[in-house]
Amino acid sequence: MHKFIDYSWWKDVTIATTGTIIGIVVTFGTTAWLEDKTRKEMADKTVIMTLHNLDSSMDNLSNLLGEMQSNDTLFHRVLSLMPDSLGVMGNDSLEMVVSRFASMRTYTTDKSTRRIFSSSFEVWQNIDDAKVISRIGNCYSMLDLCYKEYDKIEQLRAEAFKAYWNECPPQDYADAEEAVRVFLKRNDVRYAIDMQANITPILVSVNDIARQLNERNKEVLGITQDELDEVGNLLDKNEYFTDEDYRNQKKQN
C-alpha cells in the first residue's frame, strides 16, 4: 500500500485566503480611491467658490467706486460754480449735492469662503501651481486695502456732514443755494471731497489689477464661466458652503 498525503485542503485554503486578501485590498483600495476622489472634488469646489467670491467682491467694489466717481463729478461741478453761480444748477441739483455727500453705503462681504480656503491644506495640495495660491492671497490683500480706504472716505464724509448738521441743518437755511454755499465753504467738507477724488482712481486701478490676477487663475486652472455661474446659482438658492458645512463634510469623509 502506498502512503500519501492529501494536500488538496491546503490548496483550497490558500485560494480562499488569497481571495479574502484580494477582496480586502480591493475594498480598502476602492474606499481610499473614493475618499481621495471626494476630497479632490471638494477641494476643486472650494477653489471655484473662492474665485467666484473674489469676482463678487470685485464687482461690489466696482459698483461702490462707480458711485464715488459719479459723485466726484457732481461735487466738482458745483465747486466750480462757487460762490456766486450756484443758482444755475437749480434747487433739485443743489439738494442732491448735500444728499449724496451725506449718503452712506452699506455692503456685505462673505468671509467664510476665504477662511475655508486659507485653512484648508487639502485645497492647497490640490493646486499644482503655487502661483495660483499666491495670486489668490494677493487678490484678497488688495480688496482688503480697497475696502479699508473706502470706509475711511465714508467716515470722513460722515464726520464732516455731522459737524455741518450740528451747526445748522440744511432745511433751516433760506434756500438750497444758501445751504450748499455754507456747506461747501467748510474746510472739512472740501477736504473729504478732495480726498475722495484723489483716492478713488487709485482704488479703481488696484481693483482692476486684482481682477486681472483672478482672471489669470481661472485661465491656469481651466475654470469655465459655466462653473462659476453654477456657484452663483447655488448662492441664490442659499446652498453656499459655510465654515460649518465644510467641517461637517470633512468629518463624513
UniProtKB/TrEMBL annotation:
Source superkingdom: Bacteria
Name of the protein: Uncharacterized protein
Provenance organism: Palleniella muris
